[in-house]
Specification:
3-stranded antiparallel β-sheet; alpha+beta; 5-stranded antiparallel β-sheet; about 250 residues
């Protein structure tokens, strides 16, 4: 495998292209269990029939774990939004359509979203009283078993030359409540500073899924707290500022 064509650099990982293969190489300190779990997630989601890159191999390169999958040629929705700002609204609608298609599937062997969130809330930088309140709120939310991407944003959707969408980066996939996944996508728009995009996204999601906006908003403090465990200091501060945004009865 040739590692001379870098296509993306992210936290603790570098992504290369070698012909028809995409090679995601993790840093040496990256957890082996997390790498194998990501590959397993992607393999399980493949079985749903969704358009995603197929896993070709899991290996080590120079002592670093790597996941080799199909290379999907195209542009991300984020690139298309930047190149065609006048089409941003239809692109956000496309993102929602893709998300609803994902959430129409089930993947029973994936980790449960609530279990993952409870563990992250326990590890977040909040006082014990607030963590207890968040655990209580989470436990009171309805249990569902829909496929949730966990990090669905315009950068993780590739549109090929024939307009076929492919969804990448299944590291955070779980089974659970679709509105929790929507709350995550909404907050990702906010993290990019795109407040208008966040609002348009929520309008489309709630309209197309017949979901009350207030219901998605109830998830936002829970999701923000659980996501604050990772990321840089600025992101943590922003996410933790959401913990008490929504009032509860």
């Amino acid at each position: 495998m040739k590692l001379d064509r870098v296509i993306a650099v992210r936290n603790n990982k570098t992504i290369y292209r070698d012909g028809d293969a995409c090679i995601k190489v993790f840093s040496k300190e990256y957890s082996k269990a997390d790498v194998l779990n990501e590959a397993l997630n992607q393999s399980r989601v493949e079985e749903t029939g969704l358009n995603i890159p197929k896993i070709l191999e899991v290996t080590t390169l120079d002592g670093k774990w790597a996941i080799v999958s199909e290379f999907i040629k195209g542009k991300t929705l984020a690139q298309l939004m930047e190149e065609n700002p006048d089409k941003k609204l239809p692109y956000i609608e496309t993102l929602v359509d893709i998300q609803l298609d994902i959430q129409s599937k089930t993947c029973p062997l994936l980790n449960k979203l609530k279990d993952k969130m409870n563990a992250k809330i326990s590890a977040c930088d909040l006082d014990a009283t607030t963590r207890y309140d968040l655990h209580t709120r989470l436990d009171g939310m309805p249990k569902h078993n829909k496929l949730c991407h966990g990090d669905l944003n315009p950068s993780n959707i590739i549109i090929t030359g024939d307009d076929t969408p492919y969804v990448i980066d299944w590291a955070h996939a779980t089974q659970g409540n679709a509105s929790a996944d929507a709350a995550r996508t909404y907050l990702l728009f906010w993290l990019k500073g795109d407040i208008e995009g966040a609002r348009n996204y929520l309008e489309f999601f709630c309209g197309k899924s017949n979901t009350a906006k207030q219901y998605v908003q109830k998830w936002m403090p829970i999701v923000a707290a659980s996501q604050s465990v990772k990321g840089n200091e600025k992101e943590r501060e922003f996410l933790l500022s959401w913990v008490n945004v929504v009032e509860y009865e």
